[in-house]
Specification:
Number of helices: 15
Mean pLDDT: 85
Strand content: under 5%
Distance between the termini: 20 Å
Structural class: mainly alpha
Low-confidence stretches: none
Order of helices and strands: HHHHHHHHHHHHHHH
Oligomer: single chain
Length: about 325
């Protein structure tokens, strides 16, 4: 865990977090943040596509089924906890549950950097799992919300467009398509930009994420003790499910660590956009503060080493 804390990616996140808490004038211009987020999504998709082109597609069927199972089960568990124990109303429970069933591409990038740093091998198709996990949890969260919570007007076509053709999913899928179509040899010309420079630009992006997280810390008093505890305990529950599924479908220690981390992560890009459309009555302070202000830093600093340890124990 100490080794993980000494990683430049994590330290830049902490530097941004401290800068925000101390109210320094450090600020990343919005266009640069936008370019970095686009770069990360393309780079992750491209790398996954190249690796997928070198894989046997028959090997991925069971992990895909495992991802669909995780994407359905986790939001249902989160919803039940939020309703029964947290006493949240149905709209907020459904919106928060969708965030915890969906995934964080940045957390995925960090766990990949963690495994690469310690030279721990993992399956070539983990980016496919990232994309697959993003969608079902949002759909389940929306279904819960629409069946049990929302009574207002609802545009299914607008929602489908937002979820499936939003920036994050589109760039990931198109990056994978290019990587898979061209393979490692034809993608070699962009390797310097999308592979060799990846970790440095990820550190720069996490500097901004540290700043953004610090802005959310002031909302911790509003969300209450229960949601703070939920933001730490729910990832551990989800990671346990992800670890067990990884073991059942035959993933390696590295692959299981990735799946557990994906299961434990909470979305703060695709899910908020979808929830704003599907469950407008839900309070963004709850789901954004929980996913971005609590779970995201917990996973980066403590969660990933714990999930690797869990995978090492069971496999």
């Amino acid at each position: 865990m100490i080794e993980n804390l000494l990683d430049p990616v994590i330290l830049f996140f902490v530097i941004g977090l401290i800068a925000g808490i101390l109210k320094t004038d450090l600020k990343i211009p919005e266009p640069i943040y936008e370019i970095l987020s686009i770069y990360l999504l393309i780079a992750i998709g491209l790398k996954g596509g190249v690796q997928l082109s070198e894989s046997n597609l028959n090997d991925i069927i069971l992990p895909i089924l495992g991802c669909i199972f995780i994407g359905i089960v986790i939001p249902l568990i989160a919803y039940t906890i939020l309703r029964k124990i947290g006493k949240f109303d149905r709209a907020n429970s459904a919106a928060i549950a969708a965030h915890y069933g969906s995934v964080s591409a940045v957390t995925y990038a960090v766990v990949i950097a963690f495994l690469d740093k310690f030279k721990i091998s993992y399956e070539n198709y983990t980016t496919v799992l990232l994309v697959l996990l993003e969608i079902p949890a949002i759909v389940v969260g929306i279904l819960i919300a629409k069946i049990k919570a929302s009574k207002g007007p609802f545009s299914a076509s607008k929602l489908v467009k937002e979820v499936l053709f939003g920036k994050s999913i589109y760039l990931l899928v198109m990056g994978m398509f290019v990587g898979y179509l061209l393979g490692p040899e034809k993608n070699a010309s962009v390797k310097i930009l999308f592979t060799d420079m990846f970790k440095g630009l990820l550190a720069f992006f996490l500097l901004e994420m540290g700043l953004v997280t610090s802005y959310r810390l002031k909302d911790l008093k509003r969300v209450g003790i229960f949601l703070i505890a939920f933001g730490i305990i729910m990832p551990l529950i989800s990671a346990t499910i992800g670890t067990l599924v990884g073991w059942i479908v035959g993933l390696s220690v590295g692959g299981t660590t990735v799946l557990a981390t994906l299961a434990a992560s909470a979305s703060y890009i695709a899910a908020p956009a979808a929830m704003r459309i599907a469950v407008p009555e839900a309070n963004p302070t709850f789901y954004l503060t929980a996913s971005l202000g609590i779970t995201f830093p917990f996973n980066l600093i403590f969660g990933i080493p714990i999930y690797y340890w869990m995978a090492s124990i069971i496999i």
